[in-house]
Design brief:
Number of helices: 12
Distance between the termini: 22 Å
Largest sheet: none
Strand content: under 5%
Number of strands: 0
Shape: flat
Radius of gyration: 22 Å
Structural class: mainly alpha
Helix content: 55-70%
Order of helices and strands: HHHHHHHHHHHH
C-alpha cells in the first residue's frame, strides 16, 4: 500500500496521498470558479469592476469614499448608462460582490497551487511527467486570466455587454484548465487504467468528447448572445422547427456573424445548432451505453458508464427548463446548474476515456 512518503519514480507510479488530495482540491476550485463565473455573468456583474489590479485589487472598498469612487467609475461605463442608470448603491454592491468574489477565488487558486507545489517539489514528490502536466495547467490558467480581462474590456467601451465570442473563448480556456487538471488528477489517483480491448468504445468515447466540447462552445456563444431570450420555447423555436430567418439567404452575411446583436439571425442559428447537437449527443450516448453494457467491459468502466446517460438527460432537462424560464431574463439558478451540469458531464466523459486507455499515462 502507498504511504504518505511514497516517492513517484516514473509516470504511472504511485503518488503520495497528499498529491492526490492537493490536485483534487484544485479540480474542485476550478469547478467552482466556472460556476461563480456563471453567476457573475447571469447577474450582469462582470462589468462592475472597471480596473484590472492584480495586487491592490485584492482588497474591496473599505469605506464610503472608496465605494463612491468605484461606483463613479462604473457610472462611466455603457452598461450603467444604457441599462442600469439610476441603480442604487446597494444594487451596485450586489453586482460588485460577484465580480470581486470571482476574481478573489481566482487569486486564492494561485496560492492553493503555489505553496503546496513548492513543498512537494522540494520533497521530491513531483516527477517530470507530473511537472510537465502542471506546467500546461499553469499556462492555460494564465491564458484564461488574460482573456478574462480582454473579455471584460470589450464591455467597457460602446457596448453594455461583453463580446459573446470573447466570453466563449474565456470559458473554453477555463474548461481546458479544468479538463487538463482533472486528467492530471486521474493520473495520480488511478495511475494504472483498466485495460479494455474495444476499439469501438475507444473510438466513440473520443468522438463523444469532441462533440461535447463543441456543444459547450456553442452553449458559451448562446449564453453570450443571450440567444435563449429570443426563443424561450420548446420543442419548437417560437412555433417553428427551423426559424425562417435562418433559411433566408440574405441573412447569411459577415455583418450578421460579426455584429450578432443587430438582428435575430445569429440567436436563431446558434440556438438551433445547440439544440440539434444536444439531440444528436443524446442519441449517440444512448447507443454508446448500450454498446458498453453489452460488451465485455467490467470494473470501474462498467460501474461509471451509467452516469453518462443519466447526466446527459439531466443536462437536457436543465437546458429545457432554463429556456422555458427565460421570460425577459435568464433564470440565474437554472442557468448556473446548466453550466455546472456541463462540467459534470465533461468529467464523466473524460473519466470514461481515461479508463479506456490500454496502458498507464506517459
Amino acid at each position: 500500500m502507498p504511504t504518505a512518503n511514497a516517492l513517484p519514480t516514473s509516470a504511472g507510479s504511485t503518488y503520495p496521498k497528499a498529491i492526490q488530495i492537493w490536485l483534487f482540491i484544485g479540480v474542485f476550485m476550478v469547478f467552482m470558479q466556472v460556476v461563480i463565473g456563471g453567476v457573475t455573468r447571469l447577474t450582469g456583474s462582470g462589468l462592475s469592476i472597471t480596473k484590472w489590479e492584480i495586487v491592490t485589487g485584492t482588497l474591496p472598498p473599505l469605506n464610503a469614499a472608496q465605494w463612491n469612487e468605484e461606483f463613479d467609475a462604473y457610472k462611466a461605463t455603457p452598461q450603467y448608462q444604457k441599462i442600469n442608470e439610476g441603480m442604487s448603491m446597494a444594487e451596485f454592491k450586489f453586482i460588485y460582490f460577484w465580480e470581486y468574489f470571482h476574481r478573489l477565488w481566482a487569486r486564492s487558486m494561485g496560492f492553493v497551487f503555489l505553496i503546496p507545489f513548492l513543498f512537494f517539489y522540494v520533497k521530491g514528490w513531483i516527477d517530470q511527467p507530473l511537472l510537465r502536466r502542471l506546467g500546461v495547467v499553469v499556462l492555460l490558467a494564465a491564458l484564461a486570466a488574460s482573456f478574462g480581462w480582454i473579455m471584460v474590456a470589450s464591455g467597457l467601451v460602446n457596448r453594455p455587454w461583453v463580446n459573446a465570442y470573447k466570453l466563449t473563448l474565456h470559458l473554453s480556456i477555463a474548461l481546458a484548465v479544468y479538463g487538463t487538471l482533472f486528467w492530471t488528477w486521474l493520473t495520480t489517483f488511478a495511475p494504472y487504467p483498466q485495460v479494455i480491448h474495444s476499439p469501438l468504445l475507444k473510438k466513440w468515447g473520443f468522438w463523444i468528447a469532441i462533440l461535447l466540447a463543441v456543444q459547450i462552445v456553442l452553449g458559451g456563444i448562446m449564453s453570450g448572445m443571450k440567444a435563449g431570450l429570443f426563443y424561450p420555447s420548446w420543442p419548437q423555436l417560437n412555433g417553428e422547427w427551423i426559424p425562417s430567418v435562418v433559411l433566408q439567404g440574405s441573412e447569411w452575411n459577415s455583418l450578421n456573424f460579426i455584429h450578432y446583436d443587430r438582428g435575430p439571425f445569429m440567436s436563431a442559428l446558434v440556438q438551433l445548432m445547440h439544440r440539434s447537437l444536444a439531440y444528436i449527443l443524446t442519441i449517440i450516448v444512448l447507443w454508446y451505453f448500450y454498446k458498453g453494457v453489452t460488451s465485455e467491459s467490467k470494473g470501474p468502466f462498467r460501474r461509471a458508464l451509467p452516469l453518462l446517460p443519466v447526466m446527459i438527460f439531466i443536462q437536457v432537462l436543465l437546458g429545457i427548463f432554463t429556456l422555458l424560464g427565460s421570460k425577459g431574463t435568464i433564470p440565474v439558478g437554472l442557468g448556473v446548474f446548466h453550466q455546472a451540469g456541463a462540467l459534470l458531464l465533461l468529467s464523466i466523459v473524460l473519466y470514461l476515456n481515461y479508463l479506456l486507455l490500454r496502458k498507464p499515462i506517459k
